[in-house]
């Protein structure tokens, strides 16, 4: 079993529990707004569970199961919303692309059905249930060109032929993307070159990997290109204040870990960080002997780059200040508004949201803007 996909599935299932808890709360409310929100969550849960079911089918079976994967848009959305390392995201996408190619995705033959096409297709001679039942039957498996078909079977074959034509047309860009990735990535790993990366990114774009994940993949590919280069000790001395001597092996390991979050060339953090991830980044920089001033400057620039999201920032700061006496009352007030937004009607939601943001802005003005807490907690991490 692919360990990255297995971890990914567990993260999605953990997220499902959050949606299930909210759904339980909303279903116990008797107002129209709660019912609308509950309906949205039901749709989200159905899609997430279907996605997990498909991934489980793919990773738990051999290639005799001909099911291919082409929902890379939905995959990107879930990759973007779950805490995974760049390498893990790359491994997941690569495993699915590689499996598709092994199943003959580059040269689709026979009857091929895309679920996206089926959803929009209007059956005229038979039904989806009849088509699926026929495909799974022993009769279809052993069907020969000379076999005489019943009128019903002819009707089903006609539908399957049209769906295959539409599916093949629909999947042309995705197939082209797989061909590019096969030529410039799969056939060359791990020895890809800098000049291969633009072609690889074109392949990822054609299979509909979304923009945020594309940026992360490009960063990871560049790290692969540079992976075999020896560490330049002179550059290391220029970049870090040498307080602790590290072996080349330790240095490479720490640099590799940090590169999942931090771009050395542009000197900036490359992805949104939870508080735990921020502590880990500080820990790695401390191990690499970054100066305190440099770490603070990097974190400060990072905060300026990310869009202001009061809810996300509140959750992050809550962990940081929950045990601070001066913040206890205002955090309780914010928690009240936060909880009310999930259970009130539209008018009350707007009021609670306005009160939340107003109180949160006052909270931001009242707290110290430094990283003393983060530096202290980072030192407690295992070294």
Question: Care to describe what's here?
Answer:
- By secondary structure, the protein is an all-alpha fold.
- The chain has helices at residues 3-27, 32-59, 72-80, 86-102, 115-120, 128-135, 138-141, 151-170, 172-186, 197-206, 211-226, 233-239, 248-258, 275-287, 292-305, 310-321, 325-340, 346-366, 372-379, and strands spanning 262-263, 268-269.
- β1 (262-263) and β2 form a beta hairpin.
- The longest helix has 28 residues, at 32-59.
- The two termini are 31 Å apart.
Summarize this structure briefly.
This protein has 383 residues and is mainly alpha-helical. Helix content is 68%, strand content 1%.
Radius of gyration: 26 Å
Major sheet description: 2 strands, antiparallel
**Number of separate helices:** 19
Spatial arrangement of strands, main beta sheet: 1-2
In percent, how helical is the residue content?
Answer: 55-70%
Strand fraction: under 5%
Mean pLDDT, as a whole number? 79
Order of SSEs, N→C? HHHHHHHHHHHHHEEHHHHHH
Structural class: mainly alpha
Shape: flat
How many strand segments?
2
Q: Which spans of ≥5 residues are poorly predicted at pLDDT below 50?
A: 230-243
Features:
single chain, 383 residues, mainly alpha, two-stranded antiparallel sheet, 68% helix, flat
Layout: helices, strands, pairs:
Blueprint: H1 3-27, H2 32-59, H3 72-80, H4 86-102, H5 115-120, H6 128-135, H7 138-141, H8 151-170, H9 172-186, H10 197-206, H11 211-226, H12 233-239, H13 248-258, E1 262-263, E2 268-269, H14 275-287, H15 292-305, H16 310-321, H17 325-340, H18 346-366, H19 372-379
Antiparallel strand pairs: 1-2
Helix pairs in contact: 1-2, 4-9, 4-11, 9-10, 10-11, 13-14, 14-19, 17-18
């Amino acid at each position: 079993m692919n360990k990255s996909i297995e971890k990914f599935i567990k993260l999605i299932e953990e997220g499902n529990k959050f949606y299930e808890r909210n759904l339980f709360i909303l279903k116990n409310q008797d107002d129209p707004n709660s019912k609308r929100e509950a309906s949205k969550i039901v749709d989200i849960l159905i899609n997430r569970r279907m996605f997990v079911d498909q991934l489980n089918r793919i990773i738990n079976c051999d290639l005799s199961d001909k099911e291919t994967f082409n929902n890379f848009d939905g995959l990107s959305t879930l990759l973007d919303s779950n805490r995974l390392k760049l390498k893990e995201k790359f491994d997941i996408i690569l495993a699915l692309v590689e499996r598709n190619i092994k199943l003959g995705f580059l040269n689709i033959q026979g009857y091929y059905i895309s679920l996206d096409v089926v959803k929009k297709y209007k059956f005229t001679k038979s039904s989806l249930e009849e088509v699926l039942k026929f495909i799974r039957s022993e009769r279809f498996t052993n069907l020969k060109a000379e076999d005489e078909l019943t009128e019903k079977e002819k009707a089903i074959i006609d539908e399957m032929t049209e769906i295959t034509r539409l599916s093949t047309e629909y999947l042309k860009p995705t197939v082209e993307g797989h061909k590019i990735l096969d030529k410039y990535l799969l056939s060359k790993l791990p020895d890809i070159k800098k000049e291969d990366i633009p072609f690889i990114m074109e392949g990822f774009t054609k299979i509909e990997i979304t923009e945020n994940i594309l940026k992360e993949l490009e960063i990871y590919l560049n790290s692969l290109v540079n992976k075999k280069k020896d560490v330049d000790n002179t550059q290391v001395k220029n970049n870090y204040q040498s307080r602790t001597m590290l072996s080349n092996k330790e240095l490479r390991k720490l640099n590799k870990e940090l590169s999942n979050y931090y771009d050395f060339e542009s000197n900036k953090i490359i992805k949104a960080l939870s508080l735990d991830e921020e502590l880990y980044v500080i820990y790695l920089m401390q191990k690499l002997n970054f100066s305190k001033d440099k770490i603070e400057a990097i974190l400060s620039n990072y905060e300026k780059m990310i869009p202001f999201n009061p809810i996300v920032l509140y959750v992050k700061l809550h962990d940081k200040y929950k045990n601070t006496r001066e913040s206890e009352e205002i955090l309780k007030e914010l928690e009240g508004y936060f909880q009310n937004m999930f259970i009130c009607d539209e008018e009350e939601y707007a009021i609670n949201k306005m009160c939340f943001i107003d109180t949160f802005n006052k909270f931001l003005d009242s707290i110290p803007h430094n990283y003393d807490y983060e530096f202290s907690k980072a030192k407690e991490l295992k070294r």
